[in-house]
């Protein structure tokens, strides 16, 4: 057979197997070497077929891992119009049901197997080194450690954060940054600066539940924009929606989204920032997982692409170093003065001792060495969790394949209710985050988020139990 026809035949065969569900979304397909041996064809022919499948958007290559079926966009309730994915989206007031609030509180119970909680595994954190530095820095800067810091935060810490911004494609200075009490305070302050009660926020769905809580507290409305587990928020739908509605701000987690784990491609980031700048809409960026990339290079922040100072870049050390230290920051661009006023009214300043400790860790604690180690750990654990899901969950289950962070988004076949799975899990000492808490709609009742920062025999058995319990969760 002609080599051109041969690689096309291989491509067609793999395409048909993906279409039939033989190879599911997020699942690894045979390596070039294995397929070459099994089909008795040259590796170059397989490489050509896989390249064609990549161009078609059906598979993706992952460094040092192989080729995987590319997750497709979640398109619940979305209609096609004019060749674009569009919804008849209208702003909605955030009113969280008691059941949703109860689930949010329960999944944080650390007495449970913590598969639902949104925080890193404490066993992987540099606790001893941080504790020593907290004590030594409090002693070295005695008066400063018990005094109010400047509203913007301790200069040494801001300088280190500014230096590290280069890795995210930014060129910040220490004076461009305000230290906050975690990323949540940063985002809340950002919203207070750019919105008033009754305004509308555009945000990717599924939505981080903490966002829903403080959006409700502020009396804002939201437009839920559909998102894809591979590339994040759908820019076609966002563009269409902001033409139909007055949008005061947009909140985006571009790097390793919570809960999807998605990573927005760099060209899409640039497109997003340009779209919002053309419409003069502030963009509130949550980049809290950016440092946990599994690849060789950290992905750029959205802030790297701004031209008008409309990106309010928010992050913290809660997902990498110390959740309880509550040290975050914001680079608010043109909103700096308003942010400083809001911060001083909110809590005067962020606690000094933890700022001092984090600053010292960044200078002398080996932060980059620590990150390399923990990234490798999380990457392996995600693979382990996905492997167990593949073994014990029903056919048609889709697990996202994040390239950073530790959040996995699991989508069961239609007809299952993950709130029922949550209740069964809870009765057996396990927490999961059911899809219902990530939306005001009914789209994600068959989905749930799982935290892969934990891995042990107990976790493995817990995930196995969940897979076997799904049979009792049909609607």
TrEMBL record:
<protein>
    <submittedName>
        <fullName>Helix-turn-helix transcriptional regulator with aminotransferase domain, GntR family</fullName>
    </submittedName>
</protein>
<dbReference type="InterPro" id="IPR004839">
    <property type="entry name" value="Aminotransferase_I/II_large"/>
</dbReference>
<keyword id="KW-0804">Transcription</keyword>
<dbReference type="Pfam" id="PF00155">
    <property type="entry name" value="Aminotran_1_2"/>
</dbReference>
<keyword id="KW-0805">Transcription regulation</keyword>
<feature type="domain" description="HTH gntR-type">
    <location>
        <begin position="4"/>
        <end position="72"/>
    </location>
</feature>
<keyword id="KW-0663">Pyridoxal phosphate</keyword>
<dbReference type="InterPro" id="IPR015421">
    <property type="entry name" value="PyrdxlP-dep_Trfase_major"/>
</dbReference>
<dbReference type="Pfam" id="PF00392">
    <property type="entry name" value="GntR"/>
</dbReference>
<keyword id="KW-0032">Aminotransferase</keyword>
<keyword id="KW-0238">DNA-binding</keyword>
<keyword id="KW-0808">Transferase</keyword>
<dbReference type="GO" id="GO:0003677">
    <property type="term" value="F:DNA binding"/>
</dbReference>
<dbReference type="GO" id="GO:0030170">
    <property type="term" value="F:pyridoxal phosphate binding"/>
</dbReference>
<dbReference type="InterPro" id="IPR015424">
    <property type="entry name" value="PyrdxlP-dep_Trfase"/>
</dbReference>
<dbReference type="InterPro" id="IPR036388">
    <property type="entry name" value="WH-like_DNA-bd_sf"/>
</dbReference>
<dbReference type="InterPro" id="IPR000524">
    <property type="entry name" value="Tscrpt_reg_HTH_GntR"/>
</dbReference>
<dbReference type="GO" id="GO:0008483">
    <property type="term" value="F:transaminase activity"/>
</dbReference>
<dbReference type="InterPro" id="IPR036390">
    <property type="entry name" value="WH_DNA-bd_sf"/>
</dbReference>
<dbReference type="InterPro" id="IPR051446">
    <property type="entry name" value="HTH_trans_reg/aminotransferase"/>
</dbReference>
<comment type="similarity">
    <text>In the C-terminal section; belongs to the class-I pyridoxal-phosphate-dependent aminotransferase family.</text>
</comment>
<dbReference type="InterPro" id="IPR015422">
    <property type="entry name" value="PyrdxlP-dep_Trfase_small"/>
</dbReference>
<dbReference type="GO" id="GO:0003700">
    <property type="term" value="F:DNA-binding transcription factor activity"/>
</dbReference>
